[in-house]
Amino acid sequence: MKKANLKTYRRAFQIFIALAFIIIPLLNRSRYSMVYGNFLSFHMFGIPVADPLAVLQLTIKNVYFTIDNFIGTLLPLLLAFAMGTVFCSWICPYGLFSELTQKIGKKILPKSYKGLTLFKNGFPFKMVIFILGFIVFFMFSTTPVLNQLSTAAWYARFFQYYFGQDIISLCYLFLLALLFIEFLAGKRLWCRYICPQSILIILTKLISRKRLQVAFVEEKCICKPGYERCDMACTLSLKPKILTHSLETECTNCGDCVLACKKMGKALSFDFPMLAGLKKSTIMTRFFPEPRKIFKRFFITIALAGLGFFLFQTYQQMDFFKGKINIEHKLLTDKKIVLDSDKIADIELLANGNIIARGGEWPLNGSGNWRWQPIDDKGSFKIVPDPTQPEQYTLFKVDENIGDGATVTLTHNGLSLSEDFTDEKYKISELVDIQEGDKEPYATVEGRVSLSQYANQTFVLNLYVKDPKGLIKKIETEGDHIGIEGMLTSVGKWINSPEIIVPAEAIPELPFSTRMKVIFHDGHTENMRFETNAIIDRSNVEFDDPWF
Length: 548
Hints:
By secondary structure, the chain is an alpha+beta fold. Helix content is about 35%, strand content about 25%.
């Protein structure tokens, strides 16, 4: 049996990553949401990983930066700082397919065919694309333009759309076209001359002089000039022996040249000054006489801790106990509270502990995924948006006894519902019993619709539905002045992207009707009916249309 080498491990890891981004959307479809995302934005057990290029574009344009963005960007940049551009050779699925395409080409095409003649350095071409992409983004677009050229993201999104929404994205045609061009060219054109996603990790690795890199010892080289095995092994058509003689921007530390040189004097090898310095440390030698065993035990401990965390988070996410709680409160149970608000017309407090929000920006037939808990005899109660996090709630405090004309004060604890309740105080217009005939089927997910007026009489319709557990398969919407639209899945929710612009010649007359058909993975459907009676005034703001 052939002994596994570095290339075997690398290829196995590449295939693992490629398969993982097929399996993850399938898990999300089965209501698992501890791991989700693609190569632009990825979350794993609460740890964010973000594409540095996407974060850079949005941060500079919007002057906005979050802790999640910082952590998510830091992880891939630290990897590049220590290990170089190993993302390209060990993680990127397009890199895998590009290598396999070149390998197939060498077997099919005539041996005399040498392919296209390339420029020696592809990095300047990447920089030109990088700069032009930034110019286009800042002048004409609201979407990070350069990330539309991410082949890794196209690969992951294809399966996200297919398994998440039963949509076959045409991005796979572009990927196949690129691979076919590289097949004919006999060279990996995209990775060397175009891919903008590699720019920041290349610049990061150049900062670190002690990163992992290929080293060449000329005295050990026994290859004949013109027959260098390392040159033939390099899938990027580089000259590994002279990498250290210039500003190295294109080597991805795949190790193919090092492997090819093993039987030819071992002139090429990996040099990792950062790790070498650690091994020579007197502290390491004194306290860890067998560092290899120590590192092995350390990584096993980390792996077991990660597995335990994964199982714990999975257990927390599973709904083992779904028992109904009957709440008996003489002032609140089965009551409808009509509020003086454009956001929410009324809320219903059901005996099973659910709150049904109706009207305003909420569906007329109601949306019921909040819970309520009474706290006193006056009619005050807690609104708990997420039953798994009872410590986060909004306090609905009645100044006097609850009833028509009473004033209520809202206090947010831990999790703010400021989008739902924009004021601190509300008047109760009416408090009535819920009649049996009024209890029409309500949606089990939270859906919202709002209509805004921007400058120049531009009216924009915004829709979103929360879906933190990935239960929804597809959402179709239609309404006044708009045709049938399909919503897109985002992180934990569904949105209409880009926003629906109501034609200028059709200034909406209130009430403005919208309908949603929500199709779940388990096969059942829910309908939500909206009737917008208020327009949010943003007439002092120019609407930034993402299409132009």
